[in-house]
């Protein structure tokens, strides 16, 4: 069944080229690697006779050749990066247990290998062979619900302690699927503990008649046996539950996955295995989303609960530590009202919306905004690329753009902007740049994606914090749990050596506990001979803000400048910046945009800089005020991923890297992870040897969170049901919560 036409379909752009407008800009970016879609069973059995004959014939011939060359072997295709040169390799063979036999190479540089053991490594050679290609692929991600065990019985495939046995082959005692249960990470708003401190929360509904409640998502208690642990980051550290898993129906079924358009669903998921999925609809039924208006629902929810929230500040007010704008979210100044957070999703004209994308944002709005009683609000910031469109002067033009580019149910959440608008908002000359590798315009979205966010913040004084989010990110879990726990953890971090801890990846299997990690960072800082960063940094040519000229400081009252090592400094202070990758020093890092710094005197040394790759982050109002003033008054700016962190560095704001769980798809040696990801200056992610050097970024290919990751999309599509037709399988995937990025397509039909 064809999906309803909710907007004009247009070709989706690639990862980075989606925001580039010239061929010249593309030449500075890493070459994309596109993963070809797998051939599915339903494709082989499709209506086209000629296709069936050709594909079945080719498949039979291939299997015969394989059986002759290596009987009993298991075929595996390994993607080899373009940077690896196999032009001088000969086909080789080996026969020992646990080894790999190379049986051929196709014209695309894909090497076919047959593995004969669980502990095999890929025996490929090349002068510039990345270390990680030696390690075998992990299989534990792809076990299903039939292998679910209590968390206490879970044995991860990776990393394993020395001498620990492998969980494979699995020994299953399957007696039927367990029943998932509602997953509610929000506070118990009806409890006396909550109502004694805060205003009561009015329940929000999807419809005006208040008959359709916001559905719960569902989780399974337990972990699939063999599922690996994250290579970097930690759930338990951040306060995220690590004893439950989510399948696709528990996660997205409440929002339309698994039932058709005729019932108001999304249709996707109806062609996948569905055993036990009906549980998620027993409480609310299958909700009809056909006429849903999320903007109206969000507004109604806020209006019902607005007595809970602090009053809006004046648009130009700069928050200080003692102001209402900077109080904790759950330990308030008046212990009565709470602040609000906006989740701002960067959208653009020409993006190809799919039913999976719609499901994701239905979930985000429901879990963050409606389930929290309006504590969060979701907005789409739609980039109109045609600067000649009269998006402010003519409502019909704005409506046409919405109709063509945004599903109707999200229209009420959209704010349109253009680069022409940014030129009006930030007029005048910005001066020269130290370098401009992309050749882009200073007001262009590629270099200055923060401009529209700054403008949005100035127009919305009702929010204290702003999450900058993207269309191709997914969170496998409840969004409220993610954003709330990240904020709470960051709030409790001491400012003492915070920049230093945030400058490197936390690898639990290598570093040990978080306290061990903090102690290691302290010793590395001492041994480096560099003084730990404390408060605002000074550098030649630094210009003060107006608040600094008035003698104001962004340092909290519990920080003593005479005792810079006080571990209590900054504890309980809301973070001004929360990032999802390390805050690294860009100097000599090899990151291609490290010197895209504009408006500073080029006769002086380039200012000190920090950066976090991937712009997904939480920014406070006072940080955005700083960025806004530096932009309009001082005519300073930097590349988008560098500007927020650098402004926090220059002016002494609190910036935190939150080490969320990040997975690797191979069995890396633990020491090699640290070498690859913390191989920069002083054992950090910055400086010479940085993992963000163009020559080192290949290490992220097999990770679950980086702009060039291939594993993120592969794992996500498998979780959605791709390649699940095996009769001897263990059922549909059930994974613990994790972030994955980028997700460029979610169903083979999207590639047609």
Oligomer: single chain
- Describe the global form: globular
Beta-strand content estimate: 5-15%
| Rg over CA atoms | 26 Å
Helix content: 10-25%
Number of spatially distinct domains: 1
Largest sheet: 7 strands, mixed
In terms of structural class, how would the helical and strand content be classed? alpha+beta
Pfam families: DUF3405
Protein name: Major facilitator superfamily transporter
Transmembrane segments: 49-69
Organism: Apiosordaria backusii
Topology diagram in text:
Blueprint: H1 23-26, H2 41-44, H3 49-69, E1 74-78, E2 100-105, E3 111-115, E4 148-149, E5 181-183, H4 192-195, E6 217-221, E7 223-224, H5 235-238, E8 244-245, H6 248-252, H7 294-305, E9 341-348, H8 355-370, E10 376-383, H9 395-405, E11 414-417, H10 419-425, H11 450-459, E12 465-470, E13 474-476, H12 479-491, H13 498-501, H14 508-511, H15 514-528, H16 546-549, E14 577-579, E15 584-585, E16 597-598, E17 610-611, E18 617-620, H17 621-632, E19 637-638, H18 643-651, E20 655-657, H19 670-677, H20 711-720, E21 738-740
Parallel strand pairs: 9-10, 9-12, 10-11, 14-20
Antiparallel strand pairs: 1-3, 2-3, 4-7, 5-6, 6-8, 12-18, 13-21, 14-18, 15-17, 16-19
Transmembrane segments: 49-69
Keywords: Membrane, Transmembrane, Transmembrane helix
Organism: Apiosordaria backusii
């Amino acid at each position: 069944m064809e999906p309803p036409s909710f907007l004009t379909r247009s070709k989706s752009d690639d990862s980075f080229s989606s925001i580039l407008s010239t061929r010249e800009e593309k030449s500075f970016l890493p070459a994309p690697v596109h993963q070809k879609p797998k051939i599915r069973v339903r494709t082989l059995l499709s209506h086209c006779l000629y296709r069936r004959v050709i594909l079945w014939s080719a498949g039979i011939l291939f299997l015969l050749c394989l059986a002759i060359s290596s009987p009993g072997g298991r075929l595996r295709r390994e993607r080899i990066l373009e940077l690896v040169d196999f032009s001088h390799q000969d086909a080789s063979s080996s026969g020992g247990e646990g080894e790999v036999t190379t049986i051929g190479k196709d014209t695309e540089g894909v090497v076919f290998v047959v593995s004969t053991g669980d502990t095999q490594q890929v025996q490929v050679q090349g002068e510039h062979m990345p270390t990680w290609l030696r390690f075998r692929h992990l299989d534990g991600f792809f076990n299903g619900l039939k292998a679910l065990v209590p968390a206490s019985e879970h044995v991860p495939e990776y990393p394993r302690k020395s001498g620990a046995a492998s969980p494979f082959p699995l020994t299953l005692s399957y007696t039927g699927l367990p029943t998932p249960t509602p997953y509610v990470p929000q506070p118990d708003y009806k409890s006396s503990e909550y109502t004694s401190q805060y205003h009561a929360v009015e329940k929000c509904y999807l419809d005006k008649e208040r008959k359709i409640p916001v559905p719960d998502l569902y989780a399974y208690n337990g972990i699939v046996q063999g599922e690996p642990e994250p290579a970097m980051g930690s759930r338990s550290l951040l306060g995220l539950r690590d004893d439950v898993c989510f399948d696709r129906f528990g996660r997205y079924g409440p929002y339309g996955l698994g039932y058709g358009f005729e019932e108001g669903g999304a249709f996707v998921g109806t062609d996948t295995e569905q055993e036990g999925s009906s549980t998620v609809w027993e409480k609310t039924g299958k909700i009809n989303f056909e006429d849903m208006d999320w903007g109206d629902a969000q507004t109604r929810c806020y209006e019902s609960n607005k007595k809970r929230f602090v009053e809006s500040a004046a648009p130009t007010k700069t928050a200080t530590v003692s102001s209402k704008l900077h109080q904790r979210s759950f330990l308030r100044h008046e212990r009565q009202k709470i602040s609000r957070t906006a989740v701002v999703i960067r959208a653009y004209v020409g993006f190809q919306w799919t039913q999976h994308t719609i499901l994701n944002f239905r979930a985000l709005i429901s879990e963050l905004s409606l389930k929290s009683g309006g504590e969060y609000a979701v907005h789409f910031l739609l980039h109109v690329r045609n600067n000649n469109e009269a998006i402010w002067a003519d409502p019909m033009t704005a409506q046409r753009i919405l109709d063509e580019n945004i599903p109707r149910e999200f229209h009420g959440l959209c704010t349109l902007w253009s680069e022409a608008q940014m030129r009006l908002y930030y007029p005048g000359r910005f001066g020269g740049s130290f370098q401009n590798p992309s050749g882009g315009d200073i007001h262009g979205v590629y270099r200055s994606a923060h401009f529209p966010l700054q403008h949005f913040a100035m127009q919305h004084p009702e929010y204290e914090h702003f999450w900058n989010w993207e269309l191709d990110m997914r969170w496998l879990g409840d969004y409220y749990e993610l954003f709330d726990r990240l904020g709470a953890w960051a709030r409790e971090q001491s400012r003492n050596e915070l920049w230093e801890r945030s400058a490197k990846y936390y690898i639990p299997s290598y570093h040990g506990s978080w306290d061990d990690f903090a102690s290691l960072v302290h010793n590395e800082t001492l041994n480096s001979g560099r003084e730990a960063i404390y408060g605002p940094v000074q550098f030649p040519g630094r210009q003060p803000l107006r608040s600094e000229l008035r003698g104001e400081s962004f340092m909290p009252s519990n920080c003593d400048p005479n005792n810079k090592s006080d571990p209590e400094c900054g504890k309980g202070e809301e973070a001004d910046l929360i990032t999802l990758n390390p805050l690294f020093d860009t100097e000599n890092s090899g990151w291609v945009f490290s010197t895209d710094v504009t408006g500073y005197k080029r006769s002086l040394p380039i200012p000190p800089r920090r950066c976090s790759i991937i712009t997904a982050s939480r920014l406070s109002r006072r940080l955005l005020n700083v960025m806004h003033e530096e932009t309009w008054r001082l005519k300073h700016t930097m590349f988008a991923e560098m500007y927020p962190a650098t402004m926090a560095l220059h002016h002494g704001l609190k910036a935190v890297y939150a080490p969320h769980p990040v997975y690797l798809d191979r069995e890396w040696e633990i020491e090699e992870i640290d070498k690859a990801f913390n191989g920069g200056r002083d054992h950090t992610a910055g400086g010479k040897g940085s993992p963000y050097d163009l020559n080192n970024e290949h290490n992220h290919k097999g990770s679950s969170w980086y702009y060039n990751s291939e594993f993120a999309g592969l794992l996500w599509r498998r979780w959605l049901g791709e390649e699940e037709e095996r009769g001897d399988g263990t059922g549909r995937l059930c994974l613990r919560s994790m972030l994955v990025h980028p997700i460029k397509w979610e169903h083979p039909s999207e590639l047609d």
